[in-house]
Design goal:
Layout (H helix, E strand, L loop, with lengths): L12 E3 H11 L4 E4 L6 H9 L5 E3 L4 H14 L4 E5 L3 H4 L2 H9 L4 E7 L15 H4 L6 E4 L8 H9 L1 H13 L5 E7 H5 L1 E3 L22 H13 L3 E5 L1 H5 L3 H11 L3 E3 L14 E4 L6 H9 L2 E5 L5 H4 L10 E6 L13 E4 L2 H11 L9 H13 L13 H12 L4 E5 L3 H9 L8 E2 L10 H11 L4 E7 H5 L5 H7 L4 E6 L4 H10 L32 H7 L3 E5 L5 H10 L4 E6 L23
Parallel strand pairs: 2-3, 2-4, 4-5, 5-7, 6-7, 9-10, 9-12, 10-11, 12-13, 13-14, 15-16, 15-17, 17-18, 18-20, 19-20
Antiparallel strand pairs: 1-8
Helix pairs in contact: 1-2, 1-8, 3-5, 3-19, 12-15, 17-18, 17-24
Length: 604
Amino acid sequence: MSTVQQPKTAKQTLTGADILVEALIHNGGQYMFAYPGGCSMPLHQALRKARDRIRTILPRHEQGGAFAAQGVSRSTDGVGLCMATSGPGATNLVTAIADAKMDSIPLIAITGQVPQAVIGTDAFQETPIVEICRGIVKHSYMITADDYNDPESVKAALLSIPRIVKEAYFVAKTGRPGPILIDFPKNIQLASLDEEIDWDPPMKLPGYRPLQRKAAPEQIKQAIAAIRRSKRPILYVGGGIINADASEELTAFAKKSNIPVTMTAMGLGAFPGDDPQSLHMLGMHGTAYANYAINEADLLLAFGVRFDDRVTGKLDEFASRGKIIHVDIDPSEIHKNKEAHVPIVADVKEFLTTLNATFTDADKPDVAEWNAQIAEWKTKFPMKYRESDEWILQQWAIEEFWRQTKDQDTFVAVGVGQHQMFAAQWYKFRKAKRWLSSSGLGTMGFGLPAAMGVAAANPGKLVVDIDGDGSFLMNVQELATLHCEKLPVKILLLNNQHLGMVVQWEDRFMEGRRAHTYLGPIDHPEWLGEGDGSIGDTYPNFVQIAEGFGVKAKQVRKKKDYPAALAEMLAHDGPYLLDVICPYQEQVLPMIPGGKTVRDMILE
């Protein structure tokens, strides 16, 4: 849907459910991922009536719907919408809401609730979802009447709905983005109102002033002075750049200053991954040269990052040789994990815009020697993997995928595990919002439904879910949604029959003892011992599963057959699953073990 149609403004009789749906449309809602139930049925009836103005997509699990809503938020400038009924429907949203909170993703989750008269009585399918989600939302609302037996009180509740929805959009998107919960008791959904409604009411958000967060002129001068004096500066950028839509400003500053750029997992695409100035990803599974550069830097320009443990390792030794300039819109992130020498609470896009306007050629640092050192590290410690003439190694599979799609505008979602890190290492993202990863919470099952949301919101674009067999099974039911909704998601399934990342830790730190990380049947012992990991039957049969959902599928085992099979998948005009059998012994390297330093980095 390319345009937003405004709701009717003439006086009419509307239920509470109608009002909420109209308010969503008024604020730009175009896609709703919703699974119905007893306490959300009025909302679904309202969505049915508005189907020409908002597309409702039926996921096959509420968690899948919420991740699909994230797919909308992460790949567009909009706010994803999801909805579930009360009780188990609402609690099935919790993981995806927590995921959105960790990754700072704008999201509006709407839950039906039992009627006010029975709230607190352990009514059928009742859960206190507002209380359950209190620590994982940016804000929450419960639309209730002060006295549900008083018509005037119910009327006031109905009239508050447009304001609540407007505020939900504003709070979700501004400042540090995050998820909003709207809990909606059934009695208010069913109540009706017969008068004109103000669809653009004033908001009531005392104390919430995110638009006022701008860097002071003295802070800009202080940053420029530190940059000018530095000899070994580095830009360390994260998801805040993506959320602020500041990739263009970041790239302009990097080119103007000639400072190398490294990105977090959330920041991939903020700066072109195939640019010579890119050090690509840093941290636990980042490039060796990015981690060496961070370790030796005398100035760390930390923009839109949170110094999380997967980046820093041993915190007190991370970037310990340099001054830190930390820019973030969320004041709670400043000094939270790492002390900043120049703390700046500001919108990073506004900050970079001002920095670019103020920064001159005279302010450029002398980085010739520093860039020569980085070039030496890149030559000495390149990204590499072992070669195989026969088997399909995961790294090679993703490199070949990059070769075949690098000139297309490709969106890539991933599950969680080795395949996620292999994709982050070997696919070079040139644009923001093309990489979707559950990075903070690390939620298995994220990839397929997230890709589903991307495909809905970006028709005509190539959308690929790179997944692992363990992660894919977590939300495999969404294959039905792909088929029924005609969403042409391509699934590149790197199938090693194991929980690969846990196996890697077992091999590295637990003497290879397998503890419930093999996903196949026990009568295939060849997968448990030594060998290439590419023999024997695979379980389950993903080709049959996909075909059972109406999705075209194929399995490939040999390296020589992979490029053509991949090209066939990419050219298919509907959803497609390519089951790629890979060795389970492959490890994601480099690796800095948890809590360790760059000195402990495993390269081979």
